[in-house]
Each structure stands twice: as structure tokens, then as C-alpha cells.
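Lecture 7 notes: from sequence to structure.

We start with a single chain of 382 residues. Read the sequence below before looking at the structure.
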Amino acid sequence: MSFTKWVNGWGLGVTHPPLSEAQWTKNTTVRYVLINSLDAGGVRLKFSNRFGDEPVELSEVTVAVSDDGKCKILADTVKNVTFGGKLIGVIEPHGELISDPIAFDIRSGQKLAVSIYFDKFTQMNTGFTYENTYMVRRFIEGNHTHSEDLDFYRMSFSAAYNFLWSVDFLTYEDSYSVAAFGDSITSQEWVDILAEKLIEFGNGKRAIVRRAVSGSRIRGCYPALSYFHYGEAGMTRFVREVNHDGVEGVIILHGINDIIHPDDKNPMRPMSNMPTAESLAEGVCEYITEAKKLGMRTYLATLLPFKNWRTYDENRNLIRNEFNDWIRNQKITDGFIDFDKAVRDEKDPAAFDPACNRGDNLHASVEGYRRMAEVVDLSIFK
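Now the structure, written as C-alpha cells:
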């Protein structure tokens, strides 16, 4: 079979990384190692500078097959990425940039390494941040886009994927992907565990693409700089994040931050922001309407428990339960996924099963994310 169709096989939700003392870089290479579940004969990279006030020069970009799933690459697979035939690409302030299609052979289960060199002072104001054991991000001084490995003693770990927004793969005509749209819970391992399952199940033709922003809500965003990394309101970013080539479905897990954020002790999060279950349902119905306009199948997921989280109270949990009950009984989507049931404590359903609790009473442990991935019906990908 030949490769004839572009399918978005990897991606992140775009936001402003948390502000820090170091918002710029210079003479630096970043290397991102990405899970891939598609067979492909070409790649195309998409970059975003949505929150940047200055142009970003990508001084050199390469792709390669990862040798060890970490920072080492197979030297004979390295290919330069070009932009209009040039090695240097410039992302304008608040803009996007798409590379030329690059002939590149990669198979399901092989990890893709993307190396980006920033020669000039570069404002690092667009990216995505989350902690995850499945993907690797490293910074190192100098141009190492062609280096087979990075010096362990000279590189540093980064919590952000700056500018790299999406990777499209030239793959089989009957291939497609499903987007996972949400917040910090979708920023973490269940999507990657599901991607690993698709390596076995998908025959090189299926992918799950993360489109999540930690701290994000269905409605509203925060005006303070210290909360910019919570991103835009879900309705602002939904279509932009899911509307990519070859994406035929979307799993929506969103709304917990709308419930847990309001707190009169914080002027940026007044209690007047507290939603009702009905308003949460109205919000996700807007997502569903937009997805259907794009011809996508839709799947809603129930919100996870959060008992003993710092703002937990019975009223907030009642809102979550009512919203979850609506998700389980609604008939407007192609199905639902009961993540709540997968990870909750059977004796105390408002709380995590202890084995599934990462420790903060809001996010799941790796075991919890494994259970979440297990309850996703793989017929979604048939």
C-alpha cells in the first residue's frame, strides 16, 4: 500500500508557558522525542507563536528516528526540515508556520525526534508544559540538530514544548486520528498509554492526538499574567485545536477546572464563576456542535473524583455528579467513556481509589491513567 493521505498524528494544545526568570533563549538546541503510532513516508511540521510578541527564527530544524526513546537518534535517518525551500523558518508574532512536506520513512512504534536550533535571542512565549514520563524534552547549548546524541553533562530537562504544535504524517488512505481535548488530566499519561495500545491495535493507521491545556476551563480565561498558562477558554481554542488533517473524532474530557477554581480568597477566581451542571452541559454541547460541523464523531468522558482537593466541598461534587450523570445519559454523541468509574474508590465514590491517586487528589497516578486507557473502547478507532 502507498502513502497518500496526510493525517495529524501528534500535537499539543497551545498556550503561554508559565512565566519565569528566563523567557528567552539563544544559541540553543531543543530536542523533542514524540510517540508515533502511524506508518508514514513523509512528515510535515506545524509551529505556533500564538502568544509571542516577537518573530521567532527557527535557525535549523531536523527530524530523525529516535534510537533509544530518549535523546539518541539514528544518524542515517536525519533529515533537514525546510520552509519554502529554505532551512530557516520565521514564525511571525501571534502567527503559525507550516514546513514543507519532508520525505521521511517512519513506522508505528518508532519515536520521532524533532531538533530545533535557535541561533538568535528568542522569546519563548508559546508552547505547552506538562510532566510526563512518556516524552522527552532537552535543551543544550549550540547547534546539535544533527548530533547523534546529546552530552548528558551539558543538557538540561525542559518542562515545555516550545512552538512545536503539530506533526502530520503522510500515511495510508484509510488512516485517521482522534483528538483528545481537555485540561491537565488529558495532558498526562492516559493519552500516551492509549497511543502505545494503538501501536499494537492500529496496524500503523490510527493515532490519538493530545489537545489539552493544563488549568483550562470550558468558559472563560484569567486576565492576570500569572495565570496565562491556564490558556484560553475551551470554546476559543476548540476548533483550532481539533480541526487538522485526518482527524475524524474527538474525546472531550473537560470541566473539572470550572468546578474547582472558584475561590473568594483569590480575586482572579471569584465564586461567581461557579458553574451549574446545566451550564457545563451547554458548554460541551457547543463543542459537539462544532465537531459535527467538521464531520467528526464525538465522545464525552466523565470527570474524575476530587475529594480532599483543597477546594473540595459537597456542593462542587454534586455539580460534578450531576454533570457526569448527564454525560452517561445524553444521546447527542457517538458514545461516552466512564473515566470516573474507572478510577474512583468503590467505597467512597467522591474520592480516588488509593492506587489511582497521584497524591494531590485531582490527578491520577500512572496506574489510574492505565485504567483510563483500558476503558476506552478501541472500536472508536475501527
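The mean pLDDT is 93. Keep this in mind for problem set 3.
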